[in-house]
Amino acid sequence: MRATDLSAAIEALVEQRVPTFLWGAPGIGKSSIVKQIAKSKDIGFIDLRLALMDPTDLKGIPFYDKESHTALWAPPAFLPREGRGILFLDELNSAAPSVQASAYQLILDRRVGEYELPEGWAIVAAGNREGDRGVTYRMPSPLANRFVHFEMDVHVEDWRLWAYKNALDERVISYISYKNEHLFTFDAKSDIKSFATPRSWEYVNSILESSVSENLLLETVGGAVGKDVAVSFLAFCKVMNRLPDINTILESGSGEYSDEVDVLYALSTGLVSAYLKEKDDTKLQNLLRYTLGLKSEFAVMTVQDLQRNGVSMEHLDVFGEWVEKFAYLLE
Hints:
- With 331 residues, this protein is of the alpha/beta class.
- Helices cover 49% and strands 13% of the residues.
- The protein has helices spanning 3-15, 30-41, 55-59, 97-109, 141-144, 156-165, 170-178, 198-209, 214-225, 227-237, 246-252, 261-277, 281-291, 296-308, 317-330, and strands spanning 20-23, 44-49, 61-65, 70-74, 84-90, 111-112, 115-116, 120-127, 148-151.
- The strands form 3 sheets. The protein has a 5-stranded parallel beta sheet, covered by helices on one side. A two-stranded antiparallel ribbon has the order 3-4. A two-stranded antiparallel ribbon has the order 6-7.
- α8 runs antiparallel to α9 (214-225).
């Protein structure tokens, strides 16, 4: 299931406080999706890594109550006491069976020991699949039956939309647009420690923003996404030197054109990224006018990327001309 559909489904179930479990390979953004849902709804978000806990961490510590002459459980301070939010149980199936067992009551009855989860809080859990070579324990059927289960797929268009919204380096977005297969290169049968995932491309973005010297770039990027992918990515980065001047295009609506596919991918991404940093109707009109001379698939890709990022252009005269020229590709 792709990320956009997952977000919509999980958000609806959070409203109804139905426990959900999100399965997927490592590094594909499972926790990011849940955190983004909480942020968009302006509600609380608590991330619990159950794999790092003991059973008593969740249930609390027993103490003697003088008045009732009984033993009570002092619930942990990290559990919510009021308001609305999402209690995210990450790496649930990586937790020891005894810890999973202590989560039974919290997930089904919304309480554990003396603690009761506030009415406004929903439970969402996540974990890697058993075949992903992570540390996992088979989830007992009674616990599994307490969730609605989803499996997350890696989808390039969803990732590109996220990358634009989070202002990732245009070199990274351009490269993944050009080499879709390098967004996710994880192979459960391989012993290679570095491989490309949406998470590791975030690391590459941070590396490009850091002070790492150029002579160390290959080894550093390779440590994030693997040596072969790093070689290909850094070779692609040199394409940026062959781009026409993007500022000139946005200011005048004219510029040079290229027939090279890698240059066109980089150019399309560069135009969208530059416009999103400084939105202006005049620049948008110039951008659209320039795309009238682009190869059709790249003209359409550029405009669709802008629209996916919430850019409205129907009010511009040049957009009517654009639609008339490329309508056959939009059917």
